[in-house]
Design a protein that fits this description.
It is built from 10 helices and no strands. By secondary structure, the chain is mainly α.
């Protein structure tokens, strides 16, 4: 039980970091305020100790500094970590490569969904929808919606309207 609580706390701090960097419209000067020592710590912790949380934080900072290619590698490392991989980093990895490498993005989104990231579920559902697999799209949109991603809920509603189905009792 203590491990689950620690895991939840780690997700909270990564989520908070992503919100601070992306969600609140913080400009690039925020990312530049990190000292070289802090960046070196995250990099060492990521590469030496294989801490997914440090890889994810470093990726977010680097992306805000305009170093997108370098950030992608850290998102990928955090997503594919053997110990405590982070779903949000899989989602960010998918976002970073979805235009140039759609198959990798799809795999990243599916991994994010497996790791309980609702945005990843919705994005995976969009790939299924484009391929015409409505049942898989529905399953992924439902998981995204239940997880709190409004895009997933909206996509479910669009399917219902297009197919003229009654509203289901549960998602």
């Amino acid at each position: 039980m203590a491990r689950k609580k620690e895991h939840t706390v780690r997700y909270f701090y990564l989520f908070l970091g992503v919100i601070l960097i992306y969600g609140l419209g913080v400009n690039q000067s925020f990312a530049k305020k990190f000292s070289a020592a802090t960046l070196r710590y995250y990099k060492d912790d990521c590469l030496t100790n294989e801490k997914a949380i440090s890889c994810g934080k470093l990726g977010a900072i680097l992306e805000q500094q305009g170093k997108k290619k370098e950030a992608v590698g850290y998102y990928q490392k955090a997503c594919q970590a053997l110990i405590d991989p982070l779903g949000v980093t899989c989602y960010l990895w998918g976002l970073a490569v979805h235009r140039t490498k759609p198959n990798i993005a799809f795999a990243a989104y599916r991994r994010a969904c497996q790791l309980q990231d609702p945005d990843g579920c919705t994005s995976a559902g969009e790939f299924f929808m484009r391929k015409g697999n409505i049942s898989q799209a529905w399953a992924h949109y439902s998981k995204g919606c239940r997880g709190g991603d409004g895009r997933g809920c909206h996509r479910l509603a669009r399917i219902l309207v297009k197919q003229k189905r009654p509203l289901p009792k549960t998602l």
